[in-house]
Known about the structure:
The chain is α/β, with parallel strands linked by helices and about 160 residues long.
Amino acid sequence: xxxxxxxxxxxxxxxxxxxxxxxxxxxxxxxxxxxxxxxxxxxxxxxxxxxxxxxxxxxxxxxxxxxxxxxxxxxxxxxxxxxxxxxxxxxxxxxxxxxxxxxxxxxxxxxxxxxxxxxxxxxxxxxxxxxxxxxxxxxxxxxxxxxxxxxxxxxxx
Length: 157
Protein backbone atom coordinates (compact mmCIF):
# COMPACT_ATOMS: atom_id res chain seq x y z
CA UNK A 1 0.00 0.00 0.00
CA UNK A 2 1.18 3.50 -0.75
CA UNK A 3 0.55 6.69 1.22
CA UNK A 4 0.59 10.06 -0.48
CA UNK A 5 0.46 13.16 1.68
CA UNK A 6 -1.02 16.03 -0.33
CA UNK A 7 -0.58 19.54 1.01
CA UNK A 8 -1.83 22.83 -0.31
CA UNK A 9 0.64 25.67 -0.05
CA UNK A 10 4.40 25.86 0.16
CA UNK A 11 7.16 23.34 0.75
CA UNK A 12 7.92 22.37 4.34
CA UNK A 13 9.37 25.14 6.47
CA UNK A 14 13.07 24.78 7.18
CA UNK A 15 12.42 24.53 10.91
CA UNK A 16 10.12 21.48 10.55
CA UNK A 17 11.64 19.88 7.45
CA UNK A 18 14.10 17.62 9.27
CA UNK A 19 11.48 16.30 11.72
CA UNK A 20 9.02 15.61 8.90
CA UNK A 21 11.79 13.90 6.95
CA UNK A 22 12.71 11.65 9.91
CA UNK A 23 9.16 10.33 10.28
CA UNK A 24 8.70 10.05 6.50
CA UNK A 25 11.77 7.80 6.28
CA UNK A 26 10.57 5.73 9.21
CA UNK A 27 7.17 5.13 7.56
CA UNK A 28 8.95 3.82 4.48
CA UNK A 29 10.01 0.77 6.50
CA UNK A 30 6.31 -0.19 6.44
CA UNK A 31 4.67 1.47 3.44
CA UNK A 32 5.68 3.47 0.39
CA UNK A 33 5.33 7.19 1.05
CA UNK A 34 5.29 10.25 -1.16
CA UNK A 35 4.74 13.93 -0.39
CA UNK A 36 3.08 16.15 -2.95
CA UNK A 37 2.75 19.88 -2.44
CA UNK A 38 0.09 21.53 -4.57
CA UNK A 39 0.73 25.24 -4.96
CA UNK A 40 -2.12 27.52 -3.99
CA UNK A 41 -3.89 28.95 -7.02
CA UNK A 42 -3.06 32.45 -8.13
CA UNK A 43 -5.89 34.84 -7.43
CA UNK A 44 -6.44 38.49 -7.96
CA UNK A 45 -6.72 40.87 -5.04
CA UNK A 46 -10.10 40.81 -3.39
CA UNK A 47 -11.03 37.29 -4.53
CA UNK A 48 -13.75 35.77 -2.41
CA UNK A 49 -12.91 32.86 -0.11
CA UNK A 50 -15.39 30.60 -1.92
CA UNK A 51 -13.81 31.37 -5.30
CA UNK A 52 -10.36 30.60 -3.88
CA UNK A 53 -11.53 27.31 -2.33
CA UNK A 54 -13.19 26.37 -5.62
CA UNK A 55 -9.93 26.91 -7.52
CA UNK A 56 -8.03 24.86 -4.93
CA UNK A 57 -10.61 22.09 -5.24
CA UNK A 58 -10.10 21.91 -8.99
CA UNK A 59 -6.33 21.55 -8.49
CA UNK A 60 -6.83 18.86 -5.86
CA UNK A 61 -9.43 16.84 -7.72
CA UNK A 62 -7.39 16.75 -10.94
CA UNK A 63 -4.62 15.01 -8.95
CA UNK A 64 -6.85 12.30 -7.48
CA UNK A 65 -7.59 9.13 -9.40
CA UNK A 66 -10.84 7.22 -9.24
CA UNK A 67 -9.29 4.34 -7.27
CA UNK A 68 -7.46 6.54 -4.75
CA UNK A 69 -8.74 6.32 -1.20
CA UNK A 70 -8.97 9.94 -0.09
CA UNK A 71 -8.72 10.99 3.53
CA UNK A 72 -9.49 14.68 3.92
CA UNK A 73 -8.21 16.33 7.07
CA UNK A 74 -10.91 18.66 8.31
CA UNK A 75 -11.84 20.04 11.71
CA UNK A 76 -15.38 18.66 11.29
CA UNK A 77 -14.15 15.13 10.65
CA UNK A 78 -14.10 12.12 12.90
CA UNK A 79 -11.40 11.99 15.57
CA UNK A 80 -9.43 8.78 16.05
CA UNK A 81 -7.10 7.65 18.78
CA UNK A 82 -3.69 6.36 17.71
CA UNK A 83 -4.76 2.71 18.17
CA UNK A 84 -7.95 3.39 16.19
CA UNK A 85 -5.88 4.91 13.37
CA UNK A 86 -3.62 1.84 13.39
CA UNK A 87 -6.63 -0.47 13.21
CA UNK A 88 -8.10 1.60 10.41
CA UNK A 89 -4.86 1.52 8.38
CA UNK A 90 -4.60 -2.24 8.91
CA UNK A 91 -8.17 -2.68 7.69
CA UNK A 92 -7.35 -0.77 4.50
CA UNK A 93 -4.26 -2.95 3.98
CA UNK A 94 -6.44 -6.05 4.51
CA UNK A 95 -8.88 -4.70 1.91
CA UNK A 96 -5.91 -4.33 -0.47
CA UNK A 97 -6.38 -0.60 -0.93
CA UNK A 98 -3.53 0.38 -3.26
CA UNK A 99 -3.16 4.06 -2.49
CA UNK A 100 -4.30 6.27 0.37
CA UNK A 101 -4.11 10.03 0.00
CA UNK A 102 -4.02 12.10 3.17
CA UNK A 103 -5.06 15.62 2.17
CA UNK A 104 -4.20 18.75 4.13
CA UNK A 105 -6.21 21.64 2.73
CA UNK A 106 -5.32 25.27 2.33
CA UNK A 107 -5.73 28.23 4.66
CA UNK A 108 -9.51 28.36 4.18
CA UNK A 109 -10.11 24.64 4.49
CA UNK A 110 -11.44 22.28 1.87
CA UNK A 111 -14.17 22.99 -0.65
CA UNK A 112 -17.37 20.98 -0.29
CA UNK A 113 -16.67 19.14 -3.57
CA UNK A 114 -13.44 17.74 -2.10
CA UNK A 115 -15.16 16.72 1.11
CA UNK A 116 -17.84 14.95 -0.93
CA UNK A 117 -15.15 13.07 -2.89
CA UNK A 118 -13.39 12.01 0.32
CA UNK A 119 -13.77 8.42 1.46
CA UNK A 120 -13.13 9.49 5.04
CA UNK A 121 -12.95 12.87 6.79
CA UNK A 122 -10.52 12.91 9.69
CA UNK A 123 -9.97 15.52 12.38
CA UNK A 124 -6.60 15.47 14.10
CA UNK A 125 -7.89 17.67 16.93
CA UNK A 126 -10.53 20.24 17.78
CA UNK A 127 -7.62 22.70 18.00
CA UNK A 128 -6.44 24.74 15.02
CA UNK A 129 -2.81 24.28 13.99
CA UNK A 130 -0.58 25.99 11.43
CA UNK A 131 -0.51 23.96 8.22
CA UNK A 132 3.20 23.25 8.54
CA UNK A 133 2.66 21.79 12.01
CA UNK A 134 -0.25 19.67 10.74
CA UNK A 135 2.20 18.02 8.34
CA UNK A 136 4.44 17.01 11.24
CA UNK A 137 1.54 15.80 13.39
CA UNK A 138 0.12 13.79 10.48
CA UNK A 139 3.37 12.07 9.57
CA UNK A 140 4.17 11.30 13.21
CA UNK A 141 0.71 9.82 13.84
CA UNK A 142 0.87 7.65 10.72
CA UNK A 143 4.31 6.44 11.83
CA UNK A 144 2.93 5.75 15.32
CA UNK A 145 0.08 3.74 13.75
CA UNK A 146 2.61 1.68 11.80
CA UNK A 147 4.48 0.82 14.99
CA UNK A 148 1.22 -0.12 16.71
CA UNK A 149 0.33 -2.43 13.82
CA UNK A 150 3.73 -4.15 14.16
CA UNK A 151 3.49 -4.18 17.98
CA UNK A 152 6.70 -2.17 18.31
CA UNK A 153 7.66 -0.13 21.37
CA UNK A 154 7.33 3.42 20.01
CA UNK A 155 3.73 3.74 21.24
CA UNK A 156 3.11 3.27 24.96
CA UNK A 157 -0.54 3.36 25.51
